[in-house]
């Protein structure tokens, strides 16, 4: 997949931005099977991360060609923003909503000269987040399980307690064997992969991963400045925001600095769909960088 996307001319996608958005939305709707208010199709199967990736590509092209001075276009973008987040919300993994929301706001700030529009998005984000947390009691309970994790010994509080014990048992290099802790980890530990690395290999390995993550993100931002095509810049910016949130959220979750929301550490966690999507993102970044000196888009030169 990486090589296939690398040799593909990404500029051919720009004129199909609305088509990609429509197909992504249709796939998101049809992949969600509702029964009693619960999805019975796992996000690994419906590829929620892939839908988020396609949304980033489509929005990058749409914002590159839209006239922000036209109020109709502003309302169109707001509608797409709400619809996209709703589709991603159906995928049962809230990290996709977080990634797309921040990427959308950053892309709007980059492409729109009117700074009041991004402020409206940010205000809507804060208001929507508060309504989401306080509308249903169980969501507030999940937040409280993070805040009072030491006093809660089941559900997500159980996971937060495991993280605390793993951090306490870890050494700078290696670990102190804690059989009780090993017995407690009897669940799918994808969400706490970084914690397991910290426990089994020590703080040195954990710090090494953090440093590599920072270098990786900084290099993406630096390479983006070398791209002459604005559409390519938009895509790399959206993908960089995606990786930034994935790394930051996953590491903070695994250090008990954030609640558990299903973020997997990129290239380390072993969930199939996020791994495939992240490799596709790297392939697309490589495709864009290999054509960094091509300024004109195929959409604008009529090809």
TrEMBL record:
Entry's Gene Ontology molecular function annotations: lipid-linked peptidoglycan transporter activity
Record localization: Membrane
Taxonomy, superkingdom: Bacteria
GO biological processes: cell division; regulation of cell shape
Keyword Oxidoreductase belongs to the record: no
Membrane-spanning residues: 16-33, 45-66, 86-107, 119-138, 197-223, 235-262, 268-290
Membrane topology: Multi-pass membrane protein
Keywords recorded for this protein, A-Z: Cell shape, Membrane, Transmembrane, Transmembrane helix
Matches recorded under Pfam families: FTSW_RODA_SPOVE (PF01098)
Cellular component, GO annotation: cell division site; plasma membrane
Name of the protein this chain belongs to: Cell cycle family protein
């Amino acid at each position: 997949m990486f090589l296939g996307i690398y040799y593909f001319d990404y500029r051919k996608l720009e004129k199909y931005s609305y088509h990609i958005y429509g197909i992504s939305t249709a796939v998101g709707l049809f992949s969600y099977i509702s029964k009693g208010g619960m999805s019975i199709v796992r996000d690994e199967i419906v590829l929620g991360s892939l839908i988020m990736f396609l949304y980033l590509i489509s929005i990058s092209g749409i914002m590159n060609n839209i006239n922000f001075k036209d109020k109709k276009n502003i309302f169109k973008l707001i509608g797409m923003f709400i619809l996209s987040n709703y589709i991603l919300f159906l995928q049962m993994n809230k990290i996709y909503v977080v990634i797309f929301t921040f990427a959308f706001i950053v892309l709007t700030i980059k492409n729109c000269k009117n700074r009041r529009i991004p402020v409206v998005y940010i205000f809507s984000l804060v208001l929507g987040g508060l309504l989401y947390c306080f509308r249903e009691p169980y969501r507030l309970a999940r937040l409280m399980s993070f805040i009072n994790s030491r006093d809660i010994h089941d559900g997500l509080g159980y996971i937060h307690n495991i993280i605390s014990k793993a951090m306490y048992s870890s050494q700078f290099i290696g670990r102190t064997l804690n059989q009780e802790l090993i017995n407690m980890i009897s669940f799918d530990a994808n969400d706490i992969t970084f914690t397991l690395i910290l426990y089994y290999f020590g703080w040195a390995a954990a710090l090494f991963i953090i440093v590599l993550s920072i270098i990786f993100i900084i290099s993406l931002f630096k390479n983006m400045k070398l791209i002459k095509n604005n559409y390519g810049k938009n895509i790399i910016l959206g993908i960089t925001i995606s990786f930034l949130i994935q790394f930051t959220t996953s590491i903070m979750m695994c250090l008990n600095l954030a609640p558990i929301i299903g973020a997997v550490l990129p290239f380390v966690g072993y969930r199939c769909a996020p791994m495939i999507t992240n490799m596709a993102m790297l392939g697309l970044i490589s495709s864009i960088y290999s054509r960094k000196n091509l300024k004109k888009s195929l959409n604008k030169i009529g090809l």
